[in-house]
Amino acid sequence: MRRGKTRTLDLKQPMPEQAQTDMPDEQPSDLFVRVLAIDKAIADLLVANEITTLEEVAYVPQAELEEIRGLTAELIASIRQRARSHLLRDVMGRP
């Protein structure tokens, strides 16, 4: 869809420190529902637009998320903050 134009890192490659490792068989949409407290339809929308990790939710350019039809600016800000908070807690070893 829009990959490759706005970033140079391949965020699809798993990194050992990614928060997803706490439940290795969990699908990205299920992870988003659990961690970001969003409904399945929004989670599926993110995955359909190639957003499949918490790192992507937290750190892809805001404009890239704004291109996804169905996501409001308020929702984007909220899920980005939740993803960043989760990742920070994970790095710090807090639940």
Report what the structure shows.
α1 crosses α2. This protein is an all-alpha fold. The chain has five helices and no strands. About 19% of the residues have low confidence. The radius of gyration is 13 Å and the shape is globular. The chain has a single domain, classed as DNA polymerase, domain 1 (Orthogonal Bundle). Helix content is 52%, strand content 0%.
Which key features would you list for this structure?
mainly alpha, 5 helices, 95 residues, DNA polymerase, domain 1, 52% helix
What's this, in brief?
With 95 residues, the protein is mainly α.
How many angstroms separate the termini?
35 Å
Overall residue-averaged pLDDT value: 82
Structural shape: globular
Main sheet properties: none
The count of strands amounts to: 0
Q: Indicate the structural class.
A: mainly alpha
Q: What CATH architecture do you see?
A: Orthogonal Bundle
Helix and strand string, N-terminal first? HHHHH
CATH topology: DNA polymerase, domain 1
Work out the oligomeric state of the chains in this entry: single chain
Write the layout of secondary structure elements.
Layout: H1 28-36, H2 40-48, H3 54-59, H4 62-66, H5 73-92
Helix pairs in contact: 1-2
